[in-house]
Task: structure prediction
Amino acid sequence: MRKTTTLVLAAAVAIVGCDVQHGRFVTTGATSYSLSSPVGTVDFIDGYETRPAHETGILNEQHLLYILIVTPGTQEHGSSSSDDYGKYITTVRHTWNTEKGTFSVSIPWNRQSDIVTVGKQDFVRGKGDVFLVRFDANGEPFGQQFASLGPHIRYQDVLQNIQQQLTNDQVVASIKTYK
Result:
């Protein structure tokens, strides 16, 4: 009996395990849409809020975070991206190799504190789930936060929303997507 209890406990720990997400939100995936000009991407982070899911048993999966990333007037010579869904932190990473050098950004979202970090800036995602990320002259990323959009918005709507709010921004106005 004792061996069985130990085995059951070990199996439960393995199932619950190290890779289980914790926090106020669970992320289930990310989608990136590359820009045709300038170099960049529109990312969606999908998932659901844990409390309602535990209370009702219904997973209300939706877009939880929208990120538009643009690099300064550059020509891309290669890129890479990755996502990490850690215990409490979901991180989106992108790197672009250009004639002006390498531009890299890592954007962690602490799902427990609901803080999104862009470069040296922290943002409370509850105040807005839309972010614009750019690079300064030194290649350091910096962000700008916008009001939340609906939970099932298309990437074109994210771009249009930011363009409408930054009507005098030539870089944002010049963004083109693949059709």
